[in-house]
Amino acid sequence: MSSCNSQDKKEDTKATKTPTSVKHNTMNQKNNYANLISDKIEHFNIKKYYENNPDGLGKTYEDRGTQIEESSGEGGSWFIANSTPKNSIFSIYKEFNDKGIILKKWVNFRNGGGPVGFKYEYDDSGKLIKKTDMDKGYTITADDIIDYCKKHEIDLFSDYTHIDKNYDEGSQKLYLINYRGKYEGKFGARIIIVIDGNNGNVLKVTSINGKHNDSAEVLYEKK
């Protein structure tokens, strides 16, 4: 989140035309991430995890087109699985206890982005104890942001594209689109677009320049 206010060596503010706001489309349900998980109890396959991985150092593999990354705590004190279905803009994150019983799960934008939909939390027996709506307070949806990226030729499947959210209770609801590419003809090693999650207004656009993020240039900032 700190990338919104870069502390790089140089910052040069440039005036530009007011960007087009993100539009909310109530009929837009093309990316139904709610169907990627449910509140049902799940179990981690501990035996399979340790196959060809006796030290429990983690493993990455593909299962029917889904890329799966698994890791564990020392001595199998916990297990984590992060899976990204083929051609999906979302990843499914799950935490399990030492017995392989689900503790937490939710859906993120791919590449470790911000959460969308419901977050489910369980006790050590796998009983659901908490359900949190991670979209609460947002009028602009994940689908709206995806459409915005497509219209602006932002590659959603690039390893350099990261979509985050400010989802803290009571804080301003924001989307942060971080990508490598162009903004109005200006190329940046990273372009960071900050969007108001309620009205869709673009609040700030920053270009991080240079191979080593040598400088930051503010391309637009809403007054």
What does this structure look like?
The chain is mainly beta and 223 residues long. It folds into two domains: 2-24 and 139-221, no CATH class; 33-133, no CATH class. Helix content is 7%, strand content 41%. The chain has two helices and 13 strands; from the N terminus they run βαβββββββαβββββ. It has helices at residues 46-50, 142-151, and strands spanning 11-13, 59-63, 66-72, 79-84, 90-96, 102-109, 115-122, 128-133, 162-166, 174-183, 186-196, 202-209, 215-221. It has a seven-stranded antiparallel beta sheet with strand order 2-3-4-5-6-7-8, with no helix packed on it. A six-stranded mixed beta sheet has the order 1-13-12-11-10-9, with no helix packed on it. β5 and β6 form a beta hairpin. It is globular, with a radius of gyration of 19 Å. The relative contact order is 0.19.
Sum up the structure in keywords.
223 residues; mainly beta; 2 domains; six-stranded mixed sheet; 7% helix; disordered N terminus; Lipoprotein
Spans of at least 5 consecutive residues with low confidence: 1-13
Q: H/E series, N to C?
A: EHEEEEEEEHEEEEE
Q: Shape, please?
A: globular
Strand order of the largest sheet: 2-3-4-5-6-7-8
Largest sheet: 7 strands, antiparallel
Nearest-angstrom radius of gyration? 19 Å
How many domain units? 2
- State the helical fraction: under 10%
β content, as a range? 35-45%
Mean pLDDT: 89
Summing up helix and strand content along with how strands pair, one would put the structural category as: mainly beta
Number of strands: 13
> Helix count, per DSSP?
2
**How widely separated are the two ends?**
20 Å
